[in-house]
Every structure is written in C-alpha cells, then in structure tokens.
Amino acid sequence: MFDRMKTNLQAEIQQIKNAGLFKEERILVSPQSAEITLKNGSKVLNFCANNYLGLSDHPRLIEAARKALKSHGFGMSSVRFICGTTDLHKILEQKISEYFGTDDTILYASAFDANGGVFEPLLSPKDAIISDSLNHASIIDGVRLCKAELYRYANANMEQLEERLIMSQEANYRMIVTDGVFSMDGNVAPMDEIVRLADKYDALVMVDECHSAGVVGPTGRGVTELFDLRGKVEIITGTLGKAFGGAIGGFTTGKKEIIELLRQRSRPYLFSNSLPPAVVSAGIEMFDMMNETHELQDRLHYNTKHFVSQMQAAGFDLKPTKSAICAVMLYDAVLAKNFADMLLNEGIYVVGFSFPVVPRGEARIRVQLSAAHTDAHLEKAIAAFTRVGKKLGVIGV
C-alpha cells in the first residue's frame, strides 16, 4: 500500500517545490534573541520570531526555570487532575487572572490546545459560533470539534458581524470569536465594536490574545486594555510561547464558571500532561516583571513605529498594523521566497509566507519587531530591505 502512496506523496511534494511553497527549516545553534547564530556559523538579525519583548533568553526567566528544576523536578508525568498540579501551577494561573483582570485561569500545554478545548464543552448543536474569517487555525480546528452552528464574517467587518448576529438569533447561546491581533496581517480586531454588538444582540465574546498580549495596550495587557474593556470579555485565550517568554504553554482566562467547567470537560486539559515546573516558574517571574514596568512595551512600540515609517518612506507596500507585526506585501510566492533568501545573505533573517499560510496571490514577508532590537538593528534591516527591494524591482531605484 505505501509504495502507491509514496509515489503520490513524492509528486505532491514536488508540486509544492515547483510552486515555490516548500518550507525549509533553518537550524539555530544559539538562544532565541535579536541576534542568532545559524548552524553554518553565520550570525544574523532575527526579524521573524514571536519574541516581542525579547524575553526568550532573559536571565531572570532562565534563573527562575533553573530554581524550579531543582525544587520541583523536570516533568510532572501526569495530567492535572491526577497528580500533575503543583503550587506553581496555581500561582501562575492567579498571576494571569490578575494581569488580564479576569476571574480565573486554566493552563494548557499550548494555546492550540486552549483554542481546541474551549468550544466543545461550552456549546451544543443549539448554539452558534460567529467567527472572523482570518481567525487562527487553532480556532478553526477547535470550532470543528464543536457541534454548534458556524457563521463567518469578513475580517473585522462589523456590518457582516451584525448580519450574522441577526441571522443566528434563534440559537440558544451565541459566541463571537476573534483574534486580538491577526497574525499574518498585524491588524487589531475592533473590540469596542465587537463588544457593543455582543451587548446589543446578547452574545458572548471570546478573543485570542496570542499576538496581542504583552504587545498592544499602554502596558501590554492586550486588546481588552487597548479598548478599555478589561473584565468585559467572557473568554480570553493566550500563550506563554510568544511575548511571554517564548517557551510553550497556553491558557484560557475569563469568567469563573466557564473556567471551572473547562477543568471538568476540556479534553486537551484532561488528557495532556501538565506543564513542566521550569516553564511555569519562568512564567510566574515573567508576570512579576510585567507588573514592575512597561519599559519593554514602550521600546517595542517605538521600534514598530520607526520601522514601519521608514519602510513606507522607502516605498514598500505594507499592511496597516497596530501591532508588532509588519506585513511587507510581495504577492508572488517565488518572489517572497527569493526576497527572504537574499535578505539572509544580507544578515537579516525573515521568512516568505505564501499559500496555504496566507491566501493565494497574497505572499509576503512578515516582519516581527522585538523590544530587543536596537536602533542599529533596525537601520541595518531597513537598509537591507531597500537594497534587495531595488534589485528585485519591488521598489524604485
């Protein structure tokens, strides 16, 4: 059987390569940081990590993880409800709740699991989910596991959202679901309008803060802070794997009764190992740092504003952004790949994104800024983009 399947797989892989869509994994031999070292020994500036606050190699987080290894061991070898819950897990859940202004929090192995485990326990076939068309794949997969009726609305289109709310009025419960920051474009969901419509039509709201928590808002507390909605959204999901240290781990935080039911019924929580103590301890330290100062957020906001303004001045076509994500639009998949390869030769590490990660004909390079980037890093990247852009005819000479 596999011989026949092998032939088809090889043909499909070749088609991916021919279309310029084949994704290669470059190997790092250094900590994740603004400057990284590749396996071939070259040192490059990293502009494509989710390391928004530059915490992935922060000494305080490393020390917190080291202490937990000594005090609580390497792994838990259990799910939470059997013998996988430590004092550290409960402390971290409390810290997350305090940070977002919510009642309670539940930890998951990843944010993918958090989104995969939130819908099925809460909603039935009598209910409806109204989902933004650009929501993350984890939300899409989580919705598929749920029997609620699905309605979609065009990205951040509030007229269509209202239409879907009117269409779904016969449902028992309705939940509006959106990313806080859309990962491929960098735009922020209009949470003020979403909450207004939810109140008008008696709907719940869930927001995925993976790319917005730690990033947007005056102190980085995400879109609910940005729109002055702390405590007014029923469900927030997020990750420890991006701005918050960059390791692994997800969470759902929100109304007490929702979190309590998830502890009883959410399958990724019930059937996945508990987060390792080292990760949890570093997460606690990270939230302590967030409460001490928002200096890192200030630096990130400055870096993003400077990079975007200079790239626009150079003539690049950028998606509008209110986050640390800057989508440099190139539209052609092969062009995006070649552009990224040439930038790597210039010492700038970015990746070309094309179908199926983004729609066909919308290939791009997604630049992600970090608080760890210095002015010199930014200037080097902008100069490299400009040189390559001129060579490839993307911008004028």
Low-confidence stretches: none
Measured by DSSP, the beta-strand proportion falls in 15-25%
Q: Could you state the oligomeric state of the chains shown?
A: single chain
Quick one: biggest sheet? 7 strands, mixed
> Strands of the largest sheet, in order across it?
3-9-8-7-6-4-5
* Beta strand count: 13
Q: Give the H and E element order.
A: HEEHHHEHEHEHEHEHEEHHHHEHEEEH
Instruction: Please give the alpha-carbon distance between the first and last residues.
Output: 55 Å
Cα-atom Rg, whole angstroms? 22 Å
The chain-level mean pLDDT equals 96
Provide the helix percentage.
Answer: 40-55%
Going by helix content, strand content and strand pairing, the class is: alpha/beta
3D shape: globular
Helical stretch count?
Answer: 15
Question: Can you describe this structure?
Answer:
The protein has 15 helices and 13 strands. With 397 residues, it is an alpha/beta fold. The strands form three sheets. Strands 3-9-8-7-6-4-5 form a seven-stranded mixed sheet, with helices on both faces. α4 runs parallel beside α12, α7 runs parallel beside α8 and α13 runs parallel beside α15. The model has no long low-confidence stretch (mean pLDDT 96).
